[in-house]
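Example with several molecule types.
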Amino acid sequence: MDPQRKRKIRLVAALSVAVLLAVALIYTSFSASTETKEPSQLLSATPGTRAEMTGKVVPGTVRQEGSGIVFAVRDRDGEGRALPVSYTGTVPDPFRGGREIILTGSVESGTFVGEPDTLITKCPSKFTTKSDA
Amino acid sequence: MPSLGGALLALAFLTTVSAAVVALLGRNGDRRWIDLSRRLVYLFFALVTICVVIIELAFAGDDFSFSLVAEHSSIETPEFYKLAAMWSSQEGSLLLWAWVLSIVSTAALYATRHKLRELVPWATAVMMGIAATFTGLLLFAPGVDPFATTNPVPADGVGLTPLLQHPSMMIHPPMLYSGYVAFTVPFAFAIGALITRRIDAEWIRATRRFALIAWALLGFGLLLGARWSYTELGWGGYWAWDPVENAALMPWLLGTAFLHSIMVQEKRGMLKVWNASLIVGTFSMALLGTFLVRSGVLQSIHAFGDSTVGPYILGLIGVVLIGSTALIVSRLDDLRSEKRIDSLASRESVFLVNNLLLVALVAVIFWGTFFPLISELFTGEKASLAAPWFDEYTTPLGIALVLFTGIGPLLAWRRVSWASAKRVFLVPGIVAAVAAVVLLLFTDATNSLWAFALFVFAAFAMTGLGQEFWNGAAARKRLTGDSFPVALVGVVSRNRRRYGGYIVHIGVVVLLIGIAASSSFQTKRDLTLRPGESAVVDGRTVTYVKPTVATDPQKLSFGAVLRVEDGGSSTILRPGRDYFRPTGQQGGTIANFFEGEATSEVGLDAGPRNDLWTAVQPNLTDVKRRVNKADAAFATCVRGGPGAPPECAALTALMIGARDNPALRPAALAQIAKLQALTASQIADTYLEDDAPATFRVIIDPLVTWMWIGGLIALAGALIALWPTRGRRRGALVRTEADARKEAKYREIRDAELDHAVGKLSDQDFAVVDAELRREAVEILDKVEGERALNGNANGNGAGKKPAEVK
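Resulting structure tokens for the full complex:
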């Protein structure tokens, strides 16, 4: 086989692998992803809606209940009605009232039930928002 | 002091701009302009250093007239962490960026002061352009002035959050930053090389060290972050595929690809477009990492608010990407390869495969990280991808990389005959096969096929690397007659780049074994136990022996004593949780203690086979009820009047006195705070009698210790590869580009000789390769002679020396 042709075959092979990877990425990412919502969007959601919720823990609402905790969250801008949340599992250290959290779970009878080990709390106070200061 | 700092910063900004302008005036190689621009860069370094010193002195001296200090430190903050508090702020971290940039640009320009006269002015201009962007941000962007002042000056600062008070948090951010920033040097020189069309290996030789330093620092920063997460964050993991983690991993992976593929350009004159694109990609990724943390674009545990500097950094990334792409496209003709790959069975072709795997890995991570934006673009809904999706792709790619990590070092450059391939692959192949059989028969490693494949490939790679060391030492022993250990040290120290690189490979393979084992065979259980109760986790009996309480002025600690019995042996672990009193506010309530920061103290028994990791979540419901009661009682006492119990008459009197005489107020408040702290520790002690159930997380993590050990081995390997070679230390030898080219060719000949001596090149292959190399060397020597004659420079050292047996 002449080298020119050999190179062409190699290029085609490499490109097809790349295309395959790209297609797989696109396909699986759309099917495996979870929608991200804010608490206000989940208040009126149909029961069973699964989502990755980002919100701010309402200070003073965190209580221990059984082996888990219950608390309320609001939208990140602090507006809107509070959404009750229940969660069982380990709570990250920075978790407390007023902190922003990310939690994956689903809405069940008006309460957002978090899946174990999906609670993420934002790093505290590092670079505080300065734009409105 | 703040105004002095501000003035110096403004001066530093002017210096960067003038350094860039002066450098461009010297673009035709005029020594005077180039020397002046270099000295301006040194001045920039000095000015930013003074700015950093002023800030650090303010932190050390609790000068709360700096708002930076007031917002991120306090009198009680431990001295050690006061110094680290600078980079826990937006403005401080940007100042750190500028400072590291001033250090690396100074070092790079000092190292190339006699070389690359055409290219250096452009590289200087690029580095100073970036420096001007960052110092300009500090000066002109709203809200990020590090020298902003407070009015009135507070008596005490807010303090540094206790979570960040961890030794690895001291060094994790500067390491990551230094890694990010040091990639500026190879990027700037690549741009210089493209503009001046000097696209041989010179810019690579001049900046290889900086790329390696950047890579090592970034890797070490990642490792420290993982370690912090594992030991401090109380969830027991070390990697979560969080956007900001990914943002730091991507430049590291691209940097890894770059470090490999530049060797191909250096030795074979190939992959020029690829290398230029890789370094542009790496640097853009480093900027992207800086941007993501500050933008609030993606939801991440690390996204520290939507700050004002995000758009500027995004603009810089745009300029870098568009400018570089246009430049590369316009230079495509000059970037054509000098040679073709001779054979698929050669080191360069394995490097190419490893590059493609690394880039694929980055593509996957990039897609996953930015998926929320992508999905919003196409479906209108934000959606995000979790760790399992990332694992699905990164696992097979990572395992394939381990395989090629094993194959690469066994192959020689240019070509490998079937006979020599068989010879070098024999032992590693057998060991891998034996390892597979042993794993199949004696362990349950086959429960996870991916992990099984990784262990087998790792056995192959490690044996191959061991064989390299063995054969190298044996060849040297034959040559010198030294004992084996002396010969081993000799061959390593004479070929630091090669063997340092091998040590990095060993470290990375060990690290990946740790990751594979701990992620595939981990046992994780959450248990709720009362004191005295036990549970069985993975054959071990875990008993909650008793609760513990410790109090000090800063915090209340609720802990547990756990006994873990495994067969005959038993281990005591003491996980706990610390509740910190909020700093910087006075006259609060006892409940304040529980609303401040809380951090987990992990109970960890690390071992070569397993880590036993425990954390506790104490149930404080009863404690908090008593706290609320006590707070109510205090309030009644302070108010006085009817219903106040008689024992707090003294307190009531004190408060009434303070109301009438404001001068007494601070003393009264201090008295109350003291009483509250006393009550808090008394109430805390009642936790011991509560018999309250506590929630424990128990993780049995096999081989995870090897992850940290592997990381440190890799770091050591990088240091060995970086250590100056003897010729370098003598200094005079390598001064001009021609000398550098000559040295590089000699090194290549030495490499081929070593490959021959250790049996990677058959006699026949070696004869061909050696002849080619010597012909190339003679060409270079002729050219050097020619240049010398032209310059009338007679005192060339060793210019006439023909390439002899150099090993």
